[in-house]
Amino acid sequence: MNRQEWKEKAAEMSGVPKDVAMGLPILTITGTDELCVENYRGITEYTDQIVRLQTRCGQIKIGGRKLEVIYYTNDEMMIHGHIRTIEYQT
C-alpha cells in the first residue's frame, strides 16, 4: 500500500472527511460565473483568461473570459467571470 492509499484508508477509518485529512481541493461552482476554491496552495498563473492554482494533488487550470480573483485567503478564493473549463493536471 503506497502513502496515498494509506492516507485515504486512515481517513476513511477515522471518519474524518478526505478533504480535511488529506488537504484535497474543494471546488464549488455556481452557474458559469462564480467558483469558490478551498485548500489550494498558491496561484501559479493569473490572467483574465486563465487562473492556474497549485494544490496538494497537482494543478487546477480554470479557463474562461473576464476571470477575476475577487478575494483570497490562505486556503480559499473566489473567482468571478465566464468560467468555461476546469482542468486537473497531476
TrEMBL record:
The lineage of its organism: Bacteria, Bacillati, Bacillota, Clostridia, Lachnospirales. This is YabP/YqfC family sporulation protein. Pfam families: YabP. It comes from the Bacteria.
